[in-house]
Predict the 3D structure of the following.
Amino acid sequence: MRKERHVLVVFPHPDDEAFGVSGTIATHVKNGTPVTYACLTLGEMGRNMGNPPFTNRENLPKIRKKELMEAAQALGIQDLRMLGFRDKTIEFEDEEKMTNTITALIVELNPSLIISFYPGYSVHPDHDATGAAVVRAVAKLPAAARPTLHCVAFSNDCVEKLGEADIIHDITQVNDIKLAAIKAHRSQTEQMFAGMEEKLKNQDPEVMARLNNERFWTYKFE
């Protein structure tokens, strides 16, 4: 993994960073690279309340904000931005407003690498709308000034349509940090871990492969 000047991570929900890119983030942090994580919402419309439930709909945003801060701390992220948009509404936000929000971050931070979702191949409307805003913001820059954009995709047809991911990071050396980040989002991941603990303990090959390999598609601008 090459040394970057600054990494900007842009996702819509708390825990979006944990599953697919937290090992990559942790590695950049260990390399001494500044990482800014811009999280658009607090995931207040999430359905999970813990297992067994330990919160309710009214308190969920407070819980998820706390979980997000704990995950960022586990990853060593010093610059966490909570942008205040509402969960499940990103697709309905004014496109110019969203583009300008991301553009302002790029101008301020001057990142050499941005990580976000690949629009159209990220399953959730908020994911796709966030990725699209990032693509529009980067596309506005002169080609020579554009940061590299690494996108996360996991729709059923992503490999068929995009080809195989061109970036695969083996994050085995920091998988303990990744697990800590995932577990920090307790309200969303507790039930998942209840079914995974034994497999993790036994180093199940399929589970470990999913945990230790983070894949990205480099976005190609026309």
Summary: The chain has eight helices and seven strands. The chain has one domain: 7-218.
